[in-house]
Design brief:
Helix content is 43%, strand content 14%. The chain is α/β, with parallel strands linked by helices.
């Protein structure tokens, strides 16, 4: 949400990369900004157990708005060749740590 608020440009037809599936409130903002695509890493079972209803609503909102959604399983990401910078102790370090030592 903050990225959209502080964007210095029109986000129409942009692709948005986020760490988690957006909640319905954020999905609504993405729709208002007329983004064309949302990309995120597949949520964990724990995340789904808590947020499945909200994620289903967000998915329906995207479908109705014609927004493409791409979900990657974390195992599909080629960390070494993806150009991802991982800060020590950062979020992606925690999420991707099991893949960084391969």
């Amino acid at each position: 949400e903050n990225a959209m608020i502080f964007a210095k440009r029109d986000l129409t037809d942009c692709t948005v990369f986020v760490t988690h599936p957006p909640c319905p409130r954020c999905a609504s903002k993405l729709i208002q900004e007329e983004v064309k695509r949302v990309v995120y890493i597949a949520p964990s079972d724990d995340f789904l157990s808590r947020w499945a209803d909200d994620l289903a609503l967000s998915s329906e909102m995207y479908r109705e708005a014609g927004i493409e959604v791409t979900v990657y399983e974390i195992a599909q990401i080629d960390i070494e060749n993806a150009g991802i910078t991982v800060a020590p102790g950062g979020f992606f370090r925690a999420v991707l740590s099991r893949f960084l030592d391969r």
